[in-house]
Specification:
The protein is an alpha+beta fold. It has one domain: Endonuclease Chain A (Endonuclease, Chain A). It contains six helices and nine strands; from the N terminus they run βαβββαβααβββαβα.
Length: 181
C-alpha cells in the first residue's frame, strides 16, 4: 500500500479518505501508526463485505500484530466510543497502544511507519472519514505525503507534542484533563 513509487494521486477528497486512508494505508502499517485528530467518535469501518466493526478493532488488530499506536485527540470521546474501547483489551493493557488528550489539538495527521503521512481536514469520525453515505459525509480534503523532509518535520512536530514539550507554558492548562508533563 505505502510504496515510494505509488502512482496514485496524493490528493484525497471526500470518500477517498475512507478508501485510501482507512481501508488501504492504515491497515498496511507494520511498525508504527501515529494519529492526531481534534474529534474522535465511534467510527465504524467495513470488516468483511457488508459487515462493519469499530475502527478501534482495526487499531486493536494492528497492536496484536506488534504495531505501536499513538493517538492524540482534543476531547474525551462519547459513551459509544468508550463502550467499544472497552471491548478491546489490547488497547487497555498493551504498551503498544498509547492515548493522550490535548485540548489544543486541532491538527489532523496520520503517520504510518515513517514512510507516508496524511495531513488534511478530516477528523476520525464517521462524517469526516468513515463509511457514511456521500449525502451525509463532510466535505474533506487532504494529502498523502511521502517526501522524506516533510515526513521528518511532521514526525518531529508530532513527537514534540507527544512528549509534552508545549505543556509547561500552555495557556490551556486550566482545561486540560491530563497534562502530558
Amino acid at each position: 500500500m505505502h510504496t515510494p513509487d505509488d502512482s496514485l494521486s496524493p490528493l484525497i477528497l471526500n470518500e477517498a479518505h475512507y478508501t485510501r486512508l482507512i481501508r488501504e494505508e492504515i491497515p498496511a502499517a507494520t511498525r508504527f501508526l501515529w494519529i492526531a485528530t481534534a474529534d474522535l467518535k465511534d467510527l465504524h469501518v467495513e470488516a468483511t463485505k457488508g459487515r462493519f466493526q469499530p475502527f478501534l478493532g482495526v487499531l486493536a488488530g494492528l497492536v496484536r500484530d506488534g504495531v505501536e499506536v499513538r493517538l492524540v485527540h482534543a476531547k474525551e470521546p462519547g459513551p459509544r466510543f468508550r463502550r467499544d474501547f472497552d471491548r478491546y483489551p489490547e488497547l487497555i493493557a498493551s504498551e503498544q497502544f498509547e492515548r493522550v488528550l490535548c485540548p489544543r489539538m486541532h491538527a489532523k495527521i496520520v503517520i504510518i511507519d515513517g514512510v507516508v503521512a496524511y495531513v488534511g481536514s478530516a477528523n476520525l469520525t464517521g462524517a469526516g472519514i468513515g463509511a457514511k453515505s456521500s449525502r451525509r459525509r463532510n466535505f474533506e480534503a487532504g494529502m498523502l505525503i511521502r517526501d522524506r523532509q516533510t515526513l521528518d518535520e511532521l514526525m518531529d512536530f508530532f513527537d514534540r507534542l507527544w512528549m509534552g514539550e508545549h505543556c509547561p507554558k500552555c495557556g490551556r492548562r486550566d482545561v486540560c484533563p491530563d497534562p502530558i508533563v
